[in-house]
Amino acid sequence: MKLNKLMSVVLGLALIQLIFTQPAFARSRANKKADTASTETYNPDRDVASTGGSKFWVGPALDSAVTDNVSTPALSMLITLNDKMAIQAYAGVYGVNPFLFAVGGDFKYTLVGDVTKGLHIGGGVGLGEVGGNIQGNIGGININAGGSAFFVNINGLVGIHFQIVDNVLVNLDSGATVSISNGNTNFALAGHPAFGASILYHI
User: Fold this and answer.
1) Average pLDDT rounded to a whole number, residues 121-137
2) So where are the chain's domains?
3) What is the pLDDT of residue 6?
4) 150-198: per-residue pLDDT in tens?
């Protein structure tokens, strides 16, 4: 009999403890989940560009150190990686018969300012086929109309970039270019006629 009463008391105390501790445990788990969600929602490392939202800029470019065409603009896209680094790609088609084209890209690092305004350095590579019905210039090697040549350009650059109005970015580049074409190698300083100008719109 005494044993039964003792067991009843123990079970009663255990039940009371369970009733009062369960809500506190539930609140603790809820708070932990809320803290985790808050941490995952805000992560400053995910902010890769000071421009906010889209990281892409698109427009025409006259960077002949990459495209090897000083008269016909290439289509260019600049992708901002963070507030200091960007990649600018170029592509152009200048003839169909023969097929004349150029593709390439530059990596740009901002020394002063950010990706929307400042002073940058970088380098890149371009390749393609020029000549035919256009006048080409491969790092100082002139290609006459009627001829064509495959080229590879490797360039280093320094330049500035700024916005003339909201969402319109101008890049001006100059530097040095090593060009390889038809077995010839040439080195040229300031190998960016028209200052490698590009005018890009933020999309």
Assistant:
1) 74
2) 2-42, 56-202
3) 47
4) 889 898 999 999 999 989 999 999 888 888 887 888 888 765 556 678 9
Fold of 56-202: Porin (2.40.160)
Does this model's pTM top 0.90? My answer is: no
- How far is C-alpha 187 from the chain's CA centre? 28
Q: Which stretches of the chain are assigned E, i.e. beta strand?
A: 56-61, 74-80, 85-95, 100-114, 117-131, 136-138, 141-143, 148-165, 168-181, 184-189, 198-202
Lowest mean pLDDT among 25-39, 95-109, 118-132: 25-39
Cis peptide leading into 193, omega within 30 of 0? Answer: no
Among 138, 145, 78, 56, which Cα is nearest to 102's?
A: 138
62 Cβ partners below 8 Å, 6+ apart? 70, 73, 74, 193, 194, 196, 197, 198
Q: Tokens 């933020």 correspond to what residue?
A: 202
Whether residue 202 contacts residue 153, with contact meaning beta carbons closer than 8 Å, is answered with no
